[in-house]
């Protein structure tokens, strides 16, 4: 009798195999053998996306999508580390509150929560239950209204925060940030209703601010001495943005990588301010969306290059400063 090689695989191996499969394929593994019948129900990483199931035309109905999530959560046993709901076809499911409540009641150890629905439509008011998950380390929210309950004490273990197209008030977001003492990475894109933001995050290492910055023009690091990477996209060069960037550079003594991506609409100001904005730690300066044909653009880039002092190649450091431009046209004009 031939030995069944898949029935007696170690639990860690089977969980690793299942983690690489779409959820619909994970469920189908229950027919492999009697030992595999319930293994999928103990999967620690649950990812529900457009690959879940489709009809005869290759499309999936919203109701079918919701039924799949309901069924998996109903039969699931054990802890859940990752819960991700993302779709390019559907807005936020109406039963998301029920799912979050289930996670809180049955798997209070949830570490990664990702909600990424279809981009258009009204923002969804995220369930207050989400703010009661103390073990969250990664949080990604798209197209929602961020309004924690008054009892919110913070995420003591959160290391990564990514929010996009989120409607949030300044004081609320500042409170969330300061209540995450271990925060290392943060992405803020296309935020709604923000004009100013003061970021106080002592352990923050990487920050990305981008999208439509027309309504979000001033971001200041109040206390982030460990910031080593900064990326600003949708930059237009208006005075408020330039002043904000100057202050940010002054307050980032450990900054090593800076990336500035110009938006489609540029309104560059003249940069005749000679205040010291030097950084002796910068290793990489990357500029994209640079047309090279506008004098103010060139002046702005010259300003950045002159304001940063990079280590010489003969220094003890093995690093050197690199400058990447989005186009090679007009480089000679520097």
**End-to-end distance:** 77 Å
Q: Strand order within the widest sheet? A: 1-2-3-5-7-8-10-12-13-14-15
Q: Runs with pLDDT <50, length 5+?
A: 266-275, 316-321, 327-334
Work out the number of β strands: 15
Tell me roughly what share of residues is in helical segments.
Answer: 10-25%
Report the sheet with the most strands, covering strand number, pairing sense and barrel closure.
11 strands, parallel
Beta-strand share of residues: 15-25%
Care to describe what's here?
- The chain is of the alpha/beta class.
- It folds into two domains: 44-193; 195-334, no CATH class.
- Helices cover 22% and strands 21% of the residues.
- It has seven helices and 15 strands.
- It has helices spanning 11-19, 23-28, 62-75, 96-106, 170-178, 239-250, 295-307, and strands spanning 45-48, 82-86, 112-116, 124-125, 138-142, 144-145, 160-164, 185-189, 196-200, 206-210, 218-223, 229-235, 257-262, 284-288, 322-325.
- The strands form three sheets. Strands 1-2-3-5-7-8-10-12-13-14-15 form an eleven-stranded parallel beta sheet, with no helix packed on it.
- Strand 12 (229-235), helix 6 (239-250) and strand 13 (257-262) form a beta-alpha-beta unit.
- The longest helix is centred in the N-terminal third of the chain and has 14 residues, at 62-75.
- The chain is elongated and about 70 Å long.
- Residues 266-275, 316-321 and 327-334 have low confidence and may be disordered.
């Amino acid at each position: 009798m031939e030995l069944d090689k898949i029935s007696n695989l170690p639990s860690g191996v089977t969980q690793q195999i299942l983690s690489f499969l779409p959820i619909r394929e994970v469920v189908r593994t229950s027919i492999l053998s009697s030992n595999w019948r319930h293994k999928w129900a103990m999967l620690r990483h649950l990812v529900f996306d457009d690959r879940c199931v489709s009809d005869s035309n290759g499309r999936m109905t919203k109701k079918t999508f919701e039924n799949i999530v309901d069924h998996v959560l109903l039969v699931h046993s054990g802890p859940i580390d990752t819960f991700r709901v993302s779709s390019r076809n559907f807005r936020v499911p109406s039963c998301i509150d029920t799912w979050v409540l289930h996670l809180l009641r049955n798997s209070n150890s949830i570490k990664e929560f990702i909600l990424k629905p279809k981009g258009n439509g009204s923002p969804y008011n995220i369930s207050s239950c989400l703010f009661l998950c103390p073990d969250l380390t990664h949080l990604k929210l798209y197209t929602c209204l961020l309004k924690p309950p008054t009892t919110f004490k913070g995420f003591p273990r959160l290391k990564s925060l990514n929010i996009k197209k989120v409607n949030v008030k300044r004081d609320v977001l500042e409170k969330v940030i300061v209540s995450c003492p271990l925060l290392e990475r943060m992405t803020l894109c296309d935020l709604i209703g923000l004009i100013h933001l003061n970021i106080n995050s002592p352990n923050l290492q990487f920050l990305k601010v981008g999208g439509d910055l027309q309504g979000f023009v001033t971001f200041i690091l109040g206390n982030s001495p460990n910031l080593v990477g900064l990326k600003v996209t949708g930059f237009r060069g208006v005075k408020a943005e330039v002043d904000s960037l100057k202050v940010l550079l002054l307050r980032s003594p450990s900054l090593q990588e800076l990336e500035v991506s110009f938006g489609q609409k540029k309104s560059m100001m003249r940069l005749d301010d000679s205040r010291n904005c030097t950084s002796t730690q910068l290793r990489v300066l990357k500029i994209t969306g640079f047309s090279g044909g506008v004098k103010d653009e060139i002046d702005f880039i010259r300003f950045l290059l002159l304001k940063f002092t990079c280590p010489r190649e003969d220094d003890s450091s093995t690093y050197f400063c690199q400058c990447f431009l989005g186009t090679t046209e007009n480089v000679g004009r520097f």
